[in-house]
Design brief:
Strand order of the largest sheet of chain B: 7-6-9-12-11
Largest sheet of chain B: 5 strands, antiparallel
Helix content of chain A: over 70%
Shape of chain A: globular
Number of strands of chain A: 2
Largest interface: A-B, 84 and 75 residues
Number of helices of chain B: 17
Order of helices and strands of chain A: HHHHHEHHEHHHHHH
Oligomer: heterodimer
Helix content of chain B: 40-55%
Strand order of the largest sheet of chain A: 1-2
Radius of gyration of chain B: 29 Å
Strand content of chain B: 5-15%
Number of domains of chain A: 1
Distance between the termini of chain A: 24 Å
Chain lengths: ~290, ~500
Amino acid sequence: MVIWTIAKTTVGEAMRKKVLNVCLIVAVAMIVLALSFTQLGFQRDMTIIKSLGLFVILLAGFIISLLLSVSLIPNEVDRRTIYTILSKPVTRYEFVVGKFLGGLITLFINIALMGVVFIIMITVKAHFSTATIGIPASQAGAGAAEAVSGSIAPQAFDPSLILGVIMIYFQFVLLSAVVMFFSVFLAPTVNFFASAAVYVVGSAASVWQTMASGSSQAALWVKALYRVIHTVVPNFEYFNIQNILIHPQQEVRSMGLYVTESIIYAVLFTVVLMTIAVLLFEKKEV
Amino acid sequence: MSRGKRISLAMFAVALLFAISALQRPIDKLRPQFTAESIFRPETVSPGKTGETSPLFDMSLQFFGAAAMGMREAVASMLWVRTDELFHTGNYEAILPLVRLVTWLDPHQIDVYSTGAWHLDYNFTDKDQRSDRRYIPPAIALMEEGINNNREIYDLYFDLAWTHYLQKVKDPRAAALWMEKAVAKRGMDPNTGRTIPRPAFVDRMLAHTYEKAGMFDKAEKQWLKCLAGSETAAKENPKDATPWLDVDICKRNLGLMLLRLAWRYGDMGAYERGIKVLDSLGSPDPNQKRALEAAKKSFAEFKARGTAPHDTQPPVDAKFQVTWKKVAPKVLVLEGKLALVPAEDYKGLASEPYTLWYEQNQQQPEISRRKWQDGCRLRILLADYNYDYRNLQRLNRFDWDVDKNQTIMMDDVMARRGEFKIKIDMSQDPSMYPFTKDRYRLVVWFNPQEAPEFIQDRIGWKGEGLTDKNCLDTKTIPGCRMIRKEFILRKSDII
């Protein structure tokens, strides 16, 4: 109950932050503006619009989760409101978890809003479009275009995009946990860069994997280092399924299982980070 | 929080870390389909592409970083927009590196492979719009790479067959092989990407290609398959006009192919089947009705006489002659004669009651009456002596850095009224025609497989009704009788 009260207050405070609102408005505007892109034909346009739309949500989500989470605890300390809160029958772990939960709800509202706008826009565009399939007339050869091309009405609603938005959300749940973890012992500015660095390293997991296992000449210690990075650093790349969503012709052996396991991974890692954060905050002098 | 609770929590966190590590294994097992590893080092579906090294390490770090941070598709999309701009401003050279980058960043953008390969095949030209054939192997390699990365949909298989092998290389047998692969795949909804039935034209084009390659049994079977598919679709969606239209297209093409088999080669069984198929069309078009009645009448007459038509016999003598001369450095003039096809040769053909070409020509006033049925296109190749245009070089990996020392000029000329003449100016494009070798091969040929239907009505699909005292060639394309003349030139003959 206490956790919920703190979370609600945190959401109220966060939603009043102008910088986050500006981020949200810009992101929504960019998603809507992407629809004006109509120069390359339906399929190519959709590829571009979807990739840009998901990228905008990703970028806005990254900024919002970082800016939001980085200040959740330090703000209370700076404004000294933390003394008032902790003097009430509120334990430290309730305070940390409540703050974190409030951040997640705010993040959910923002990403959900962008996601809904994005999916509606895509659906509307597809509904009012006809797609040419086969070989474009310009490439078909004289008089052959009718024989090697045709047009179809594409399916308007693409439910897999919802999956993309959900995965982006869980990616930033994990990032928020990283930020919260750092925020109990790092200054906000240092935390900002440290968390961003963890995100970059964690987003490039397959690169490290390729570097380590792709070359037979890779030293043993390089491979060992990769294993350590792979386990200790949250793997944000698990949540990056844009390519599959934009080009769903790529068959995934078990998309449902993959998404479920990735979400469980995000939840477990978040619990670990938050547990450590709570333990550190217990000992922290405020 | 008590010390005991803190220790319990710490142990809980450590235990969870082990659980996470264990969970990563099944995720990683599913994950490889998304990783750079699998994207950049695909398995192969075509010969000659095994054991390639990963181009991953060739990528510039900026793109590599972008690719790694979930921006891969967005960066690829923006680069593709930029590519389109470059195309419209004619900056063709700059497009190829971008195509390479986009396909690395997003190997599932099939349009990039398709448009990039078409661009390589057609848009690097000399001042007379002759395309640079040195770019054909890179175009095919790019398409094969695209197929490797997008195996489950028909699009790129079909595009490779149509745009490259059929239209560019003019090799219907190779095209048929790739189209056979295309008809084993499904189509894709362009928005959601869900698999949908392949469009009907893919299957029909395989039948056309079999016919073009002279594989008539396979063509007939394929047409019947297309017809059955379209009829099923029409019954399932009786209100949708498209499948009914597909049924008509199949019947018309199958019927006409069968009649041609009869007219050209005397296959009376095909004649009967063809009439039956066209009869089932029930076309209200008066011209179609008249043509069908004429075919029925002709069939009945042949049957009553116990004979069969054979429009390709006796063979037409092409009386092919060709000479070449250098009129300036790197400028050649070729001229000659090709006696294909005199109008008189159409008199009395079994196809005539159906086409009425000869009859209508005879009804013209003497002055405008045509003496020739023009439509034969001769191909001309001037290339390094060791260049074999029938067996193109295979690249193990897409690389547009072509051999700048290689010379390949290919052009064509239409024979009109039995004659042809063409001036080939290679002097303005030294980079395309470097002439660095000592010996060259100048080949001029007429391939009946490339001829229009009205020419094939007389000489057959594969030149069965074609002969020539000096230049008949039956070896270059097995089973095909073509006209071919080859000259060996020295560098000094050209420069």
